[in-house]
Amino acid sequence: MLSLTIDGKKVEAEAGWTLLDTARQYGIEIPTLCYHEAVEPFGACRLCVVELRQGNASRLVASCVYPAEEGLEVHTASEKVNNVRRWILEMLMSECPASQEIKEMAAQYGVETTRFEINDPEQECILCGLCVRACAQVVGANAISTVGRGAQKEIGSPYLVPGDACVACGTCVTVCPTGAMRARFERVRGVPSVVMARSVK
Amino acid sequence: MQATAKDTTELRLGSLEELEKLRGELRAAEDPDQTRIIVCHGTGCVANGSPGVTQALKDALAAAGEQVEVMPGIKTTGCHGFCSRGPLVIIKPKNIFYQQVKPADAEEIVQQTIVKGETVERLLYKLPQSGEAVETTEDIPFYAGQERVVLKNIGQIDPTKIDDAIRAGAYAGAAKALTTMEPQQVIDEVIKSGLRGRGGAGFPTGVKWNLAAKHQGGQKYVLCNADEGDPGAFMDRSVMEGDPHAVVEGMIIGGYAIGADTGYVYVRAEYPLAIKHLEKALADARALGLLGENILGSGFNFDIRINRGAGAFVCGEETALMRSVEGKVGEPVPRPPYPSDKGLFGKPSVLNNVETWANVSRILDRGADWFASLGTEKSKGTKVFALVGKVNNVGLVEVPMGIKLKDIVMTIGGGVPGSDRFKAVQTGGPSGGCLPWEDAELPVDFDSLIAAGSMMGSGGMIVMDDRDCMVDVAKYFLGFLEEESCGKCFPCRLGVPRLRETLNRFSKGEGTIEDIDDLYSMAEAIKAGSLCALGGTAPNAVLSTLRYFRDEYEAHILEHRCPAGVCKDLITYSIDPEACTGCHACFRACPQNAVSGEKKKPHTIDESLCIRCGMCLESCKFGAVQVQ
């Protein structure tokens, strides 16, 4: 077992646990958006960042991917950590203003409004990629992917054309943290080949 | 097999001795006092027409016929660095330096210099201050102030001929390492040299190798990061184009040191000449037995593959680069695990940049002590910089670490046109920052640059003068990174555009002073929160300009004024009636017909038609056009 401290509390972790695993084992809450137990951690949303301190040195790491190490001093809600979370949430509020989940999470960090311009009031998708990873790692269908780069990035099927690779299992809808996949499902699902086979009979 | 200088096509070198024997014969076959013509065929000079110059020189030599006692060879080489003066022609052995040579000059060069042994005065470089013409490369301040380690063969050898490279010393370091040293000794030598990675972060190269070498056995990889993407940077391209064997040799040494049998060069597809020369170098090295099975009889097997990148800036980040080589989307992944434990295809891997690999070749050839004698205590060796922007001598320079910023820009660079100082020097590419004239005495090394709020980066150095607006510069770099962000992690994807939007407001005079506090806070969150260094360093452009040029930000915000006269929403063009001679130049230059006035009488600008393009300002020879 590895011993470390989280928010001043002595904790023990098994080798192979991440900091998030360890914190959750002890009921210490760390917010996440792109994390899900069913798929490999991705380290993209950065809400789960925690501060590692060693003497005067300090840095932020994503707790969902950072391994628990002997002797670490972890702070899950320091000012540095909360500054990152507040800015991400405020920016998300302008990016995907239709998401109730984001609004609630932001409110927990005292962010009630956003100073940034809203492009699409209907947008819910936060581009965490959970749907893509679930489709690949849980279902094995690889029907969807992130498409494009940076600000142009979106979730879609190949060439943004609905395709038969989607088996309409709904896993992506289930794992989506904001419910955005509900509205997108029709855009990626073609006529599922299973259904085709039945209708021929 | 017998090694002969004339025929290396059938030759396969089986030992260190055979390589050195070949080298000796190649050197003996070349008379150092013989007249030779060297023409720069780097990308810059090629674009300026150097192939035409080479052909014209060949024709002129043929036409001169028997007038020439000993027919000189013409050698085409990689980039000499002095790109703003190209095409360059150098006559050996005296190193007579001709600049901006055109095909029409070829006959005169042959008749005057080759036949009569006289210099062609009008083609010589003239010192900008005195106007005095100087004859040889050594007399030119641009070259005299440099210390060429990585670039030592570039401009001397024909990069497409392995014979030429071997004559200049190529593969001596690799041969020594493979046949006389244990892998750990090689790593220790690199550690002792103090070499730090030239790609940006400056991590000690030997220490990185050690991390990968400690995994015993199994598949490992070495990689060369040739995805040079910083705006204005062309160091790595020039090295690959001008001395590809230096990179190949470095990678052989690295592969031997960590126990890898395969190397990858990840080079952007926009560098076709570099790829061509690398491919030729690999084929030639393979044919000679310097790559492949049982290199030089050492029992070590190693080969290199070239991987073309499609030109994503983020693929210069090591984990994204490895994903791209694997055929996946080029997005960074969190570390740990570090590439030295789980890198390419999940195997221990070492990635170094082009210049680092070239340095490795030199270190193994000449020894760690020699290398450590160059540079400063913590930054050893030299650094290649691409010097661009508002500087007289645009080009590629290599200087010892620790040289003063002023010496690079004002002495080697020949200073700033029309000014005795620079306003700012941007180092480190988009991840770096802008240093002011007050930092002119700053020693240029890894740690000093970071302490000053910038960074070494891969070696871009952009000089700026009073006509460059710092808000606009920061906006440009943020715009670049916004385009190039992979979009995986939220702080970078969402934050960088928001930083740029804030600066956009400033450049329209719409910001408030509170916005600056917000900028600091947001920049801090993006720096600390981003997944990789692209986002982690993206705010540097804002932070460093705010640190040194805060008054310029305040002028935009509080006075709605752009002191440099760049931000279009904040400036007006006018004509000083006292200075205007009515020459009509601005009248003709204006694309909007906004200038009116009769000839020989003062002109005026109609502000409602003016699009603030600055054409009138550039056309005016009397300083009558004013920007406010």
TrEMBL record, chain A:
<keyword id="KW-0408">Iron</keyword>
<dbReference type="InterPro" id="IPR036010">
    <property type="entry name" value="2Fe-2S_ferredoxin-like_sf"/>
</dbReference>
<dbReference type="Pfam" id="PF12838">
    <property type="entry name" value="Fer4_7"/>
</dbReference>
<dbReference type="InterPro" id="IPR017900">
    <property type="entry name" value="4Fe4S_Fe_S_CS"/>
</dbReference>
<protein>
    <recommendedName>
        <fullName>4Fe-4S ferredoxin-type domain-containing protein</fullName>
    </recommendedName>
</protein>
<dbReference type="Pfam" id="PF13510">
    <property type="entry name" value="Fer2_4"/>
</dbReference>
<keyword id="KW-0677">Repeat</keyword>
<dbReference type="GO" id="GO:0046872">
    <property type="term" value="F:metal ion binding"/>
</dbReference>
<dbReference type="GO" id="GO:0042773">
    <property type="term" value="P:ATP synthesis coupled electron transport"/>
</dbReference>
<dbReference type="GO" id="GO:0051539">
    <property type="term" value="F:4 iron, 4 sulfur cluster binding"/>
</dbReference>
<keyword id="KW-0479">Metal-binding</keyword>
<dbReference type="InterPro" id="IPR000283">
    <property type="entry name" value="NADH_UbQ_OxRdtase_75kDa_su_CS"/>
</dbReference>
<feature type="domain" description="4Fe-4S ferredoxin-type">
    <location>
        <begin position="125"/>
        <end position="180"/>
    </location>
</feature>
<dbReference type="InterPro" id="IPR050157">
    <property type="entry name" value="PSI_iron-sulfur_center"/>
</dbReference>
<keyword id="KW-0411">Iron-sulfur</keyword>
<dbReference type="GO" id="GO:0016020">
    <property type="term" value="C:membrane"/>
</dbReference>
<dbReference type="GO" id="GO:0008137">
    <property type="term" value="F:NADH dehydrogenase (ubiquinone) activity"/>
</dbReference>
<keyword id="KW-0004">4Fe-4S</keyword>
<dbReference type="InterPro" id="IPR001041">
    <property type="entry name" value="2Fe-2S_ferredoxin-type"/>
</dbReference>
<dbReference type="InterPro" id="IPR017896">
    <property type="entry name" value="4Fe4S_Fe-S-bd"/>
</dbReference>
TrEMBL record, chain B:
<keyword id="KW-0411">Iron-sulfur</keyword>
<dbReference type="InterPro" id="IPR011538">
    <property type="entry name" value="Nuo51_FMN-bd"/>
</dbReference>
<dbReference type="GO" id="GO:0010181">
    <property type="term" value="F:FMN binding"/>
</dbReference>
<protein>
    <submittedName>
        <fullName>NADH dehydrogenase</fullName>
    </submittedName>
</protein>
<keyword id="KW-0004">4Fe-4S</keyword>
<dbReference type="GO" id="GO:0051539">
    <property type="term" value="F:4 iron, 4 sulfur cluster binding"/>
</dbReference>
<dbReference type="InterPro" id="IPR017896">
    <property type="entry name" value="4Fe4S_Fe-S-bd"/>
</dbReference>
<feature type="domain" description="4Fe-4S ferredoxin-type">
    <location>
        <begin position="571"/>
        <end position="600"/>
    </location>
</feature>
<dbReference type="GO" id="GO:0008137">
    <property type="term" value="F:NADH dehydrogenase (ubiquinone) activity"/>
</dbReference>
<dbReference type="InterPro" id="IPR037207">
    <property type="entry name" value="Nuop51_4Fe4S-bd_sf"/>
</dbReference>
<dbReference type="Pfam" id="PF01257">
    <property type="entry name" value="2Fe-2S_thioredx"/>
</dbReference>
<dbReference type="InterPro" id="IPR036249">
    <property type="entry name" value="Thioredoxin-like_sf"/>
</dbReference>
<dbReference type="InterPro" id="IPR001949">
    <property type="entry name" value="NADH-UbQ_OxRdtase_51kDa_CS"/>
</dbReference>
<dbReference type="InterPro" id="IPR037225">
    <property type="entry name" value="Nuo51_FMN-bd_sf"/>
</dbReference>
<dbReference type="Pfam" id="PF01512">
    <property type="entry name" value="Complex1_51K"/>
</dbReference>
<dbReference type="Pfam" id="PF13237">
    <property type="entry name" value="Fer4_10"/>
</dbReference>
<comment type="similarity">
    <text>Belongs to the complex I 51 kDa subunit family.</text>
</comment>
<keyword id="KW-0479">Metal-binding</keyword>
<dbReference type="Pfam" id="PF10589">
    <property type="entry name" value="NADH_4Fe-4S"/>
</dbReference>
<dbReference type="GO" id="GO:0046872">
    <property type="term" value="F:metal ion binding"/>
</dbReference>
<dbReference type="InterPro" id="IPR017900">
    <property type="entry name" value="4Fe4S_Fe_S_CS"/>
</dbReference>
<feature type="domain" description="4Fe-4S ferredoxin-type">
    <location>
        <begin position="601"/>
        <end position="628"/>
    </location>
</feature>
